[in-house]
Automatic annotation (TrEMBL):
Record-linked Pfam families: AAA_25 (PF13481), ChlI (PF13541), Zn_ribbon_LapB (PF18073)
Gene Ontology terms: cellular component: cytosol
Keywords for this protein: ATP-binding, DNA damage, DNA repair, DNA-binding, Hydrolase, Metal-binding, Nucleotide-binding, Stress response, Zinc, Zinc-finger
Native source organism of the sequence: Kordiimonas sediminis
Short motif RadA KNRFG motif, span: 253-257
Domain notes: The middle region has homology to RecA with ATPase motifs including the RadA KNRFG motif, while the C-terminus is homologous to Lon protease.
GO molecular function: ATP binding; ATP-dependent DNA damage sensor activity; damaged DNA binding; hydrolase activity; zinc ion binding
Family: Belongs to the RecA family. RadA subfamily.
Name of the protein in question: DNA repair protein RadA
InterPro entries: AAA+_ATPase, DNA_repair_RadA, P-loop_NTPase, RecA_ATP-bd, Ribosomal_Su5_D2-typ_SF, Ribsml_uS5_D2-typ_fold_subgr, Rubredoxin_2
Keyword Zinc-finger: yes
An example Gene Ontology biological process: recombinational repair
Annotated stretches, region: Lon-protease-like: 352-455
Length: 455
């Protein structure tokens, strides 16, 4: 019999080493390498002489079959999935502790069970009584949803193989499940990889939708090997701040829909309530006209979203001024500040800068550059941006304002919410929206709208 080999595996990236060391050479993590015993295997290194079966090949122009989808009764959840659940798909849901992952999945499973679907919820972190208490609070006590509290992968697969295959299965969470033939603790790279592979294989064979909950690291990435995100069909991140009632379900990978699509929810005492018009909700508290505030017309997936960007620029005597950012990329802010200094001469290098995206939304598209710059300039000049004005556009290092995609959708959403003017780069759709459009070519043009040049 072959001996079990001992290896040292990085718990962040999955890199394997022959001996322990303090720092992982691949991901740079410290104290992430742990000893693991590989499974005993006496299989030969090469394939045997046994002949395999032929693979069925099709042409590119073969008629495409429409993928059937199952709606879970939560339009925002279905939107993030690209239109509903696809049979045989594996979906990974990640998010910070307490953000609402288990709540939204329990609500979705309860709706599906009420609609006649065979659904099973396996919890590796809570007892069935705890899940029943949450279901009672959510008003789902009468839903014919089957619950199970189990950590063993073998017991879970044995239960699923009895009787007809279920329509939807929830595993909460993959870091708590263990395979007894792997000599390592639950949550390690080996356990997560093997358990996910077996569960996804079952979903593909039986046509079951497999919803897998994943823990996240302190950096916001799903814990375990990166290959976990490659194995599944869809990766959803549940974002939000505990200080805000809003929650964003964002698709960062989707083989059956648009990547970047979002669903917006509001945390209430009775669970997660859907937000049909997130723009109106994000701007609901914007009553007073104050300097340092600008409304950005963005696009998340296929949905235009209007959100308020707040900036505060304050003089400081410190040698290293503060740069505090919430909801936006700090590197992008540094670039915009450098362009405003070099191309417009604002002299912000000696000021503390605070930037916040209201409502807890995280923005990643470069089209927010113009709105951020306007908020910063407004704070410096102490002149507020007009209440009925929106902004969008990308700023280049040369100080030019570049056009962005989906201009018509941005303007249409703004007009629907009562905005009448827009500051934007030049584009082909200029003058077609019915709004009062102010085009800017360079950041100096934007500065001139707020700061009058010296006589």
């Amino acid at each position: 019999m072959a001996k079990a080999k001992t290896s040292f595996v990085c718990q962040s990236c999955g890199s394997v080493y022959t001996r322990w060391q303090g720092k992982c050479d691949d991901c740079g993590g410290w104290n992430t390498i742990e000893q693991e015993a590989a499974a005993v295997s006496g299989a030969p290194k090469g394939l045997s002489a046994k002949k395999g079966s032929n693979v069925r090949l099709v042409d590119l122009n073969a008629p495409e079959k429409e993928v059937p989808r199952t709606l879970c009764g939560m339009p925002e959840f279905d939107r993030a999935l690209g239109g509903g659940l696809v049979p045989g798909s594996a979906i990974l849901v990640g998010g910070d502790p307490g953000i609402g992952k288990s709540t939204i999945l329990l609500q979705a499973m309860g709706n599906l069970a009420k609609a006649g679907k065979h659904c099973i919820y396996f919890s590796g972190e809570e007892a069935t009584a705890q899940v029943q208490m949450r279901a009672s609070r959510l008003g789902l006590s009468d839903a014919p949803l089957k619950l199970g509290a189990e950590n063993s992968l073998r017991n879970i697969l044995t239960t699923l193989d009895e009787g007809p295959p279920p329509d939807v299965v929830v595993i909460d969470s993959i870091q708590t499940i263990f395979a007894d033939h792997i000599d390592s603790a639950p949550g390690t790279v080996s356990q997560v990889r093997v358990c996910a592979h077996e569960l996804i294989g079952y979903a593909k064979r039986r046509g079951t939708v497999m919803l897998i909950v994943g823990h996240v690291t302190k950096d916001g990435q799903i814990a375990g090997p990166r290959v976990l995100e490659h194995m599944v069909d869809t990766v959803l991140y549940f974002e939000g701040d505990r200080g805000h009632q809003f929650r964003i379900l964002r698709a960062v990978k989707n083989r059956f829909g648009d990547t970047g699509e979002i669903g917006v929810f509001e945390m209430t005492g009775e669970g997660l309530a859907e937000v049909a018009n997130p723009s109106e909700l994000f701007l609901s508290d914007r009553d007073t006209l104050e300097p340092g505030s600008a409304v950005f017309a963005g696009v998340e997936g296929s949905r235009p979203v209007l959100v308020e960007i707040q900036a505060l620029v304050a003089q400081t005597t410190a040698a290293n001024p503060r740069r505090a950012v919430v909801g936006w990329d700090s590197g992008r802010l540094a670039m915009v500040l450098a362009v405003l200094d070099a191309r417009a001469g604002l002299g912000l290098s000696g000021c503390d800068v605070y930037l916040n995206v209201a409502g807890g939304l995280k923005i990643s598209e470069p089209a927010a550059d113009l709105a951020v710059a306007a908020a910063l300039i407004s704070s410096v000049a102490q002149r507020p941006v007009a209440n009925e004005c929106i902004l969008f556009g990308e700023i280049s290092l040369s100080g030019d304002i570049r056009s962005v995609s989906q201009t018509e959708a941005r303007l249409k959403e703004a007009q629907k919410l009562g905005f009448s003017s827009a500051i934007m780069p030049k584009g082909k759709t200029q003058g077609k929206s019915g709004m009062r459009e102010t085009t800017v070519d360079r950041v100096s043009d934007l500065v001139a709208l707020f700061i009058e040049p010296d006589a």
